[in-house]
Write a structure and sequence with these properties.
Length: 803
DNA sequence: TCCATTTGACCTAT
DNA sequence: ATAGGTCAAATGGA
């Protein structure tokens, strides 16, 4: 560091990315001109020397994101002209020193992803602060016990920040201190912030939502003055395994986002919030039968998960209701603004829409992704084919009842080709799929057709797909078995490589939200038909991430996809690389590279009732490893391929926590040994969690995992959870894709000739389907299925896993 | 005494 | 050097 800055003490901007510096030297030379200092992503950076900030008097921007610093030296008080202080994802940072109050010119203070326990009251001195983002950790509960709840977010602190334009407070979902009283106090503080335009809050109960909606300043609801918001209503345990957590994270960064969990009831009190939302993430609504129960006319992005009563999204009758309401648009368009729709784990979903729902319904939809909907039968219904004018991509995965993308009905429809903008079709794990589109001509502009594990699809017809489709990607076994169409498209067939990269590839290919973000922008205006702006490049698109645009009006001008300001974007990276990078010995951009997508678990909640929080299983969010996600990934990838039963067990049972095996024992009366694991943080944090894993004698494809004790280790680095989880997913895949199904079957399972799981139904015997169905019915993999054992010290829950 | 569980030294792969 | 599995021996509850 010394030499680096020493050599460049005239620099006004210094980036130190990915260099290996575990400790900055205590003495740093004077850098009188340094205005911007970027030290992101050095996990190894743990300590800043006490006097570190004394010599950089004109520093305006300081970015220490993704470092492992544990504290800030008091010398931060010397940064009297600092305007931006970014500490994102500094997961070991638990305290902000009171000296922060001396940083008088601070405008942006970003603590998202840190584990701080409380806000020092000195924050209130930062009168110029315009953007404040904090995330308070579960440790705040301990802090409360020691100091009292009023010290976590001291009263009258936020209300002093009168210049505040953005306030974001994330809290650990487990936090107990985040309750009505605290929130009401914060809301009260909001009333005196005249410029507040962006607000991100967790609202644990519906009552608090109501309270928030009723907040008024000069008789104007605070809510109506917001340009952007993110509200997380209710709570749920985190997705048990690796179900596209990256997607979830990114989704929450979309403009006007509401995440609503564990909802219940018809007349939903949160409807107003949802009405104003552009992005809705609905998870585990226990009673909703159709999405159109909410006013979703303005919705642009929608992510639905585990709403087990939902059978369809929109119903014919809604249209007539809507007409009666005489909306301003005067059009009968349900979901007429929707551009992105992803659905996961919907137990009863049968179809997207029922009956004729108006010619503009779903007409803006650009990406449709359907994952693990066991009852889904219809996707594009004949009479609605004309609606999907702007659909560019469709992904269907693990929907065993889907026979074809198109369902013909008795009603007549105009002649094709339909789906004029469809460019990519991805079909994965659809054992029932026998035809692409039931003979209907679709997708005249198709670029890529991806088929994976759809072994009943043995017929590709030029009636359905254009002759000039550019790429058809699939497994060689499937292509070889194809009865028709091989000749037509042989030149464009691309075989999946079985080289360990396959699952990463598939994960990328099905990362619908990522694809969406990469699409060019669109103009949406009620009066103009949707146009794709062909001239806007990816960079333009991402540039928009940094713009605040007032979206509150009904009349929406050019409305670019808006993502949070600090979403890492490609242009950010490019920007960085074009600047002076003083030291860069590693070109990884772990944070930004392609996200792996886990697609192999199926966490249907038990239908009917929300869980009782107290008796709920102890499953916790996947934990992180100390290495960076990227590092881990590379590490695992490098592991020699060794397809053994043992390895599959280990990989498959990776539940996101880091376990250390400490023993194995033959158990009387069991064919297979029992393995003992303890949480890896036992020594470091005294974590008491343990688990035992044993293959079932009765059904060798089932592993019984019994958990003992709660994890008490700190859950740092939320962001890496997903990466870790997806990592485990991808390694699981890696093992599988390294062999043919047959090889695997013989290796993995001695007795049964099948390997089954929710995602890969590789084998073809009837047994496979039986298992699969059983899996769906019993929700074997979902934590809520785990049975609670009576008595103290007994297992907290057991889990049956099938491989 | 039996046998499940845990310990800790040791080994191996990265 | 470290993480993490292996294995024999120790521990402890019924």
């Amino acid at each position: 560091m010394e030499s680096l800055i020493g050599k460049n003490s005239d620099a006004d901007e210094v980036h130190l990315n990915n260099s290996i510096i575990s400790r900055l030297t205590p003495e740093i030379p004077l850098c009188p001109k340094l205005a911007k200092l970027f030290l992101q992503e050095k996990n190894s950076l743990t300590t800043l020397p006490p006097s570190f900030f004394e010599h950089i008097p004109v520093l305006k921007v300081l970015d220490l994101s993704h470092t492992s610093i544990q504290s800030l030296p008091p010398s931060i008080s010397k940064l009297c002209v600092l305007e931006e202080f970014i500490l994102r994802e500094c997961s070991l940072l638990m305290e902000i020193p009171p000296e922060i109050g001396a940083v008088k010119n601070l405008k942006v203070f970003d603590l998202e992803g840190t584990e701080i326990m409380y806000l020092p009251k000195e924050i209130g001195k930062l009168e110029t602060l315009e953007r404040l983002r904090v995330s308070l950790s579960a440790y705040a509960d301990d802090y409360k016990d020691r100091n009292g709840i009023e010290y976590i977010i001291p009263r009258m602190t936020i209300s002093k920040l009168t210049k505040l334009k953005e306030l974001s407070i994330s809290v650990d979902p487990e936090a107990k201190w985040w309750e009505v009283e605290v929130l009401e106090a914060i809301m009260h503080d909001l009333l005196v912030l005249p410029d507040l335009k962006t607000l991100k809050l967790c609202l644990p109960t519906t009552k608090l939502v109501q309270h928030f909606l009723s907040l008024e300043r000069y008789q104007v609801p605070i809510f109506s003055g917001l340009w952007n918001f993110r509200f997380i209503i209710g709570h749920c345990e985190q997705l048990p395994f690796s179900v596209q957590l990256d997607m979830e994270e990114n989704f929450l960064k979309l403009e006007k986002c509401v995440k609503y969990m564990n909802g219940e009831g018809w007349m939903d009190e949160n409807a107003e919030l949802i009405r104003q939302a552009r992005a809705l993430y609905l998870r585990r609504h226990w009673t909703i039968e159709k999405l159109s129960l909410f006013d979703v006319t303005r919705l642009k992005y929608c992510l639905l998960m585990e709403c087990n009563e939902m059978q369809t999204l929109v119903h014919q009758e809604d249209i007539y209701e809507d007409r009666n309401r005489a909306t301003n648009h005067g059009e009968d368009a349900m979901l007429g603004s929707l551009q992105f729709l992803a659905i996961h784990f919907m137990k009863k979903l049968q179809r997207i829409s029922k009956g004729p729902i108006g010619r503009n319904s779903l007409s803006c939809l650009r990406i449709l992704a359907l994952h693990t909907c066991p009852e889904l039968t219809s996707i594009f219904v004949g009479c609605l084919l004309d609606n999907f004018k702007n659909l560019t991509e469709v992904i269907v995965e693990d929907c065993p009842k889907v026979k074809s993308l198109v369902t013909l009905e008795a009603t007549s429809w105009s002649k094709g080709p339909f789906l004029p903008n469809l460019k990519r079709v991805s079909l994965l794990d659809l054992p029932g799929l026998v035809s692409i589109s039931s003979g209907v001509c679709i997708a005249p502009q198709l670029d890529t057709l991806l088929v994976f594990n759809c072994m009943s699809l043995d017929y590709l017809s030029i009636m359905e797909l254009p002759r000039d489709t550019k790429v058809i990607k699939g497994e060689i076994e499937w292509w070889d078995a194809l009865k028709y169409g091989k000749l037509t498209w042989n030149s464009v067939f691309v075989q999946f490589k079985r080289d360990g990269g396959l699952m990463d590839q598939l994960a990328e290919d099905t990362n619908s939200l990522q694809h969406f973000l990469e699409l060019p922008m669109v103009l949406t205006h009620p009066d103009s038909s949707l146009q794709v702006d062909q001239n806007s490049s990816r960079d333009d698109h991402l540039w928009c991430n940094y713009q605040y645009i007032d979206l509150t009006e009904d009349w929406e001008q050019v409305e670019p996809l808006q993502i949070d300001h600090n979403v890492p974007s490609f242009d950010e990276i490019q920007d960085m690389s074009s600047r002076k990078i003083l030291n860069s010995d590693d070109d990884t951009q772990s944070q930004y590279d392609g996200t792996a997508v886990g697609m192999w678990e199926s966490p249907f909640p038990v239908s009917g009732k929300p869980h009782n929080e107290d008796t709920e299983c102890d499953f916790e969010a996947p934990n992180h490893k100390d290495a960076s996600p990227k590092k881990r990934r590379v590490y695992k990838r490098r592991k020699k391929l060794e397809v053994t039963t043992k390895m599959v067990i280990e990989e498959r049972l990776d539940d996101g926590h880091i376990w250390r095996k400490y023993g194995q024992k033959e158990i009387l009366g069991s064919k297979y040994p029992r393995q003992y694991y303890r949480c890896n943080f036992k020594l470091l944090h005294g974590c008491k969690a343990q688990k035992q894993v044993q293959r079932s004698t009765e059904n060798p494809s089932v592993f019984v995992v019994t958990y003992f004790g709660k994890h008490t280790c700190p859950r740092t680095l939320h962001t890496s959870c997903s990466s870790l989880a997806t990592e485990s997913a991808s390694t699981t895949f890696r093992i599988r894709d390294s062999s043919t199904p047959t090889e695997l079957a013989s290796t993995i399972s001695e007795s049964a000739s099948t390997i089954t799981d929710s995602h890969f139904q590789l084998a073809t015997s009837p047994q496979t389907l039986d298992y699969t169905n059983k899996f769906f019915q019993e929700e074997v993999l979902h934590p809520s299925f785990w049975t609670l054992e009576p008595g103290e010290g007994l297992p907290l829950n057991s889990l049956h896993l099938q491989i």
